[in-house]
Design goal:
7 strands, about 120 residues, 60s Ribosomal Protein L30, Chain: A, alpha+beta, seven-stranded mixed beta sheet, 2 helices
Length: about 120
């Protein structure tokens, strides 16, 4: 479901946040977190990246059009395992600028949260 406010389109609206906002051809995703907290970092990364891809498609974009990614890890020691999943997911030749930091996440079961900004597809 989407709702527009003048020239901003919001997707997946709840009372507190939207899962995505689109403005001037740019897609801004909310932080995507695992739907299940009982898997390891590889499983949680796959889950989150699948959600990112789904939201980008819903907003008229895809993972090859990511402009920037911010990755928050509960434990920076998980970076190698997360990178293995990330590297297999990113479209070759389109790796976006990225920051990865250790952070306290809202749910103790979550090991990762990813925020993405992407360009919409032309036309």
């Amino acid at each position: 479901m989407s709702e527009s406010h003048k020239d901003i389109t919001r997707l997946g609206m709840a009372s507190r946040y939207s899962e995505a906002a689109v403005y001037n051809g740019v897609v801004y995703l909310a932080g995507m977190v695992p739907e299940r907290g009982d898997t390891d970092i590889a499983g949680q990364t796959e889950d989150v990246l699948g959600q990112v891809q789904q939201r980008l498609v819903e907003a008229g974009s895809d993972k090859s059009r990511i402009l920037r990614a911010q990755i928050y890890l509960k434990d920076i020691g998980d970076i190698a395992a997360m990178n293995t999943v990330w590297d297999a997911w990113v479209v070759p030749g389109t790796a976006p600028p990225r920051a990865t930091v250790q952070a306290a996440l809202a749910n103790p079961a979550w090991r990762i949260e990813i925020v993405v900004t992407a360009a919409q597809k032309a036309g």
